[in-house]
Amino acid sequence: MNGIVVACVFRTTESPVSALQNLAILSGLLLGSVAHAKEPAHVDAMVGTNVAVNIGAQIRIEGPYRIRGSLGLGFLPGGYLNIINSISTGFGWYDELTADLIAAALKNSLIFHPRIGWRPIPKAGFHFDGGWMIAALGGSLTGAETVAVLTGEELADTPENAIAEIGVNATDHMLTVDVGYEVVVKERLVMDFTLGGAFSVVATSKLEGVTSDSNRPGPGQQLVSGVSEELTAAGEQYLNETFTKYVHTPTVGIMVGYRFR
User: Fold this and answer.
1) CA geometry: angle 103, 95, 239, nearest 5 deg
2) Is residue 226 domain-resident?
3) Domain tally for the chain?
4) Cα–chain-centroid distance for residue 210?
5) CA 91 to CA 27: how far, in whole Å?
6) Tens of pLDDT, residues 5-50
7) CA 154 to chain centroid
8) Which burial class, exposed, middle or buried, applies to 198 when counting CB atoms under 10 A from its CB (0-12, 13-18, 19+)?
9) 191: exposed, middle or buried (C-beta count within 10 Å: 0-12, 13-18, 19+)?
10) Are 239 and 206 in contact (CB under 8 A)?
11) 9 assigned to some structural domain
């Protein structure tokens, strides 16, 4: 590396804005020393997917000594969550109901994914990268079984109770690692193929907006109106522990884009 060391740290508590600022600083370092590089810097604009974590786009900058940084934005499709849940339920890590809870909490979440990496061989496309992916947003959970899992309170499976609803906002922080190979056609078309993994490290969940149809009162209405903070906290802890203990997946990436020089 000829005495040049570039470091970038992503803290679990930092916001997407702070992570973006860190990436901008890294990018500036890379491009600012281009005059001393043996190879020219370049910028790639790419679209594609990392199965099973996101579909989206990314901007990637490669600078001196083939050090690279990228920022990806996208979303987590429900079908990809089905892949994660199929792996976990197949190994017996959690049951189908818990899989439904995870799907409801994270389906179609927005994805923010900064990464740094290195292409060690000048004339070859082999590279490896590491990053910090944040999946955020949420949905709602309905039905007597769902309320029972999250609150610990059993409800009879009646039409009145089936309409009980809990809003869930979840954020899952995942460490990502991958190795790959890029192919450049006529100096402009870039195709990148990767294999790697995504591993949940920190998760935060918020249960709120517990409601039921006021026109159809019943035990479900009584439960949701009287759910204690202690019970909702237990439900949040249950989801957080499930995310960090079990939501891990191998990834396969295919990206295609255009190279600017």
Assistant:
1) 55
2) yes
3) 1
4) 26
5) 41
6) 333 434 444 555 565 566 556 555 554 444 444 567 899 999 999 9
7) 32
8) buried
9) middle
10) no
11) no
Average pLDDT over residues 171-179: 96
The pair of structure tokens assigned to 42 is 């370049």
The angle subtended at Cα 32 by Cα 31 and Cα 37, nearest 5°, is: 70
Q: Tokens 């060690």 label which residue?
A: 120
Preceding amide of 198 cis, omega within 30: no
Which residue is it, tokens 């990268």? Answer: 129
User: What three-state secondary structure class fits 236?
Assistant: helix
Sequence length of the chain is 261
Of 36-40, 50-54, 61-65, 69-73, least confident by mean pLDDT is 36-40
CATH of the domain at 51: 2.40.160.20
Compute the distance between CA of residue 164 and CA of residue 210 in angstroms, rounded to an integer: 8
Q: 78: which residues sit within 8 A by CB, 6+ positions away?
A: 103, 107, 108
Is residue 129 in some structural domain?
yes
- Tokens representing 221 are 């209405």
For tokens 């000594």, the residue is: 65
* Per-residue DSSP letter, 188: T
Full-model pTM: 0.73
Whole-angstrom distance, CA of residue 110 vs CA of residue 177: 19
